[in-house]
């Protein structure tokens, strides 16, 4: 799937979720909002993990190269 398709699917999901939860106040809308919240939490935790992982690798690389120069 390309980025455009994923973006369109995300916008459609968001629109359907908001209509079902806020306008119609259905149980399916509530479930979809819960699913969206869980996906957001996973996204935030995953992003933090990959950023920290990158910084640790960068620190080790820089530390190793400084010892090689001296």
Topology of this structure?
Elements: H1 3-23, H2 27-69
Helix pairs in contact: 1-2
Task: State the main characteristics.
elongated; mainly alpha; 70 residues
Query: How many strands, which pairing sense, and closed or not: the largest β-sheet?
Result: none
Number of helices in the DSSP assignment: 2
Low-pLDDT sequence parts: none
Backbone shape: elongated
General description of the model:
The chain has 70 residues and is mainly α. It has 2 helices and no strands. It has helices at 3-23, 27-69. Helix 1 packs across helix 2 (27-69). The longest helix is centred in the C-terminal third of the chain and has 43 residues, at 27-69. The chain is elongated. The N and C termini lie far apart (48 Å). The model has no long low-confidence stretch (mean pLDDT 91). This is Antibiotic biosynthesis monooxygenase (ABM) superfamily enzyme.
Question: What's a quick, concise take on this entry?
Answer:
This is Antibiotic biosynthesis monooxygenase (ABM) superfamily enzyme. The protein has two helices and no strands.
């Amino acid at each position: 799937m390309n980025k455009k398709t994923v973006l369109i699917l995300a916008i459609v999901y968001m629109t359907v979720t908001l209509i079902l939860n806020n306008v119609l106040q259905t149980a399916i809308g509530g479930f979809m909002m819960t699913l969206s919240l869980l996906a957001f939490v996973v996204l935030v935790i995953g992003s933090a993990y990959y950023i920290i992982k990158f910084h640790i690798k960068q620190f080790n690389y820089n530390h190793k190269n400084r010892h090689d120069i001296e």
